Amino acid sequence: MASGTALVYDEEMTTHKLLWSDPVCDIEVPERLSSSYEQLKRYHLVERCVHVPAREGSEEEILLVHSSEHLEVAKSTQTMNEEELKRVSGNYDAFFFHPNTYHCARLAVGATLQLVDAVMSGKVCNGMALVRPPGHHSQRNAANGFCLFNNVAIAAEYAKLKYGLQRILVVDWDVHHGQGTQYIFEEDPSVLYFSWHRYEHQEFWPSLKESDYHAVGLGKGTGFNINLPWNKIGMENSDYLAAFFHVLLPMAFEFDPQLVLVSSGYDSGIGDPEGQMNATPEVFAHLTYFLKQLANGKLCVILEGGYHLKSLSESVCMTVKTLLGDPIPQITGEMAPCLSAVESIQNVRAAHKPYWKWLMYEDTSFLQNLSTKSHLLKKANPSSSTEHESQITNISETARVERFLERHMTNVLFPVPPIKTATTDSKGSTYLHSVHLVKEMDKTELKALVRVLCIFVGDMQIIPNTEDRKILTIHICEKEQTGKSSSKHYISLNWKEDAEGNDFFFAVLGFILPVAYSYQPNLTVIAVGPNRSLGINGISLLFALLQGLAESRIFAVIEDKDINLMQSVAKILLGASTPHFGVYVPPTQEKVNKMKILRDQFQKEWKMLQCSVKDGISRH
Ligand code: Q9C
Ligand code: ZN
To answer: Residues 70, 137, 246, 308: which is the catalytic one?
Structure first.
């Protein structure tokens, strides 16, 4: 089993820069790369990664995706003077050439392929490539949106060819739609492309109809293109998490990728002048953590956008920390998606219902965007102020977020415990009796615990007092508990895992995680008793996904003689490997209905459950 995290970085890629004045392109600066790398050094993350050198991507590799005409045009810019460079740049929407751009773009491709090789060969488990120019807007025959060659698309084709992969997931969390990547794979069922993006009903660049949720792919690729348009700015951590719980992750588990590539733009983070969103750096730790659960942990993160240098570099560090296996910081912000986000989520679910088994029995229907539109709060028209004034406001806004992040990160980051996992063993027994872990807590810390999430699997003698708001219990058992009705702090989830394979991911993603994230526990306890209705795969999945909460403080109590269960749980707690969760089977209609009832019952209390607007109450 591979371990370790690769970091691919070459300072050479900072030589690509804008030589003339152009307000559209002037945010794509070399410091994006150098400041991210400096911050990684400051957090001592560089020294913990395996350095993988970049190389130039070959012409043959670039031609996996691009036309020879495009390659030739790019090549020809190496010897041009500024005037000629400006002219060629003008042929594209938002791109600039520098004499070294071609070289840098080939390094960006090669760096990405080096990362894929390091992961696929087992040299490392995962990694990140810090590259410029970015790639996801680039198309077969055109540069676009600061992108010359589509690094991630080339990597996907390369991985298919060199390693014979049949299923690759591309997650594009950049705030722009990677229309280039969509075009390249829209007829290809072997690459599942997911993108969320600022859209504002087609007003935001690149203002394409095909960036909307209706674009689900073409021909054989139908169903393998997922667009989640954001129709409002100001999306927060909870909106991004809701998108993962209710759209991306269930698709990804059903798709069962062999490799995950991230088009990792951080312009979806707070302070970014392009994105205008409000997600804080720690959300990227959570997103990364979820994606690590797929493809046996084979995860390659490739930089795309991100234009607020502080926000960008902190978010890059959060991503790399998580790749390295550090505990995940607690997420901040109100845990409820906004109405507009829920509308978008509902629509993309409706659009994909015909193509995905997990959506088959969900009663998703399209929503007319009326409420969104009436609710769309446009910012004060910037044209009313002079350009100079708005520039001043932008500068102070940038500085304001910088100061905010300076403080915020000291609150978010906590010391990583020297010992990650501790175990105890009942005396005299030959098997491991219980496994506990993560952070050593002294008495004062324990007292400060205000919320404990208890997940009980199987028969349980002692059920905590349901009136105690300090404890939220989710009891997973085969039969309805008699004399114990569900309440806000005691939820009985009757779920018997399918004997044929794993259908429990549906309940974990669609119910347990949203409740848990809404609750924001300081400690998670998972107890497994006799007569458990879940198999090893289901229990493993529970442990794997819930470790992202409570700063990874998780306490396992396992009353079971099954040594395989012990080993599997211990492995997950150690973060050493992510097991394959077994053959995917879709949930039955009966189970989907059960979830629906629970979701309806609890979504007013636990708002992250919301995935349709019918009667939920969301954040505004
Ligand atoms: N009026 C990346 O984030 N904006 N590219 C063009 C034209 C271009 C963003 C506005 C934004 C490109 C990789
Ligand atoms: Zn972007």
So the answer is: 137
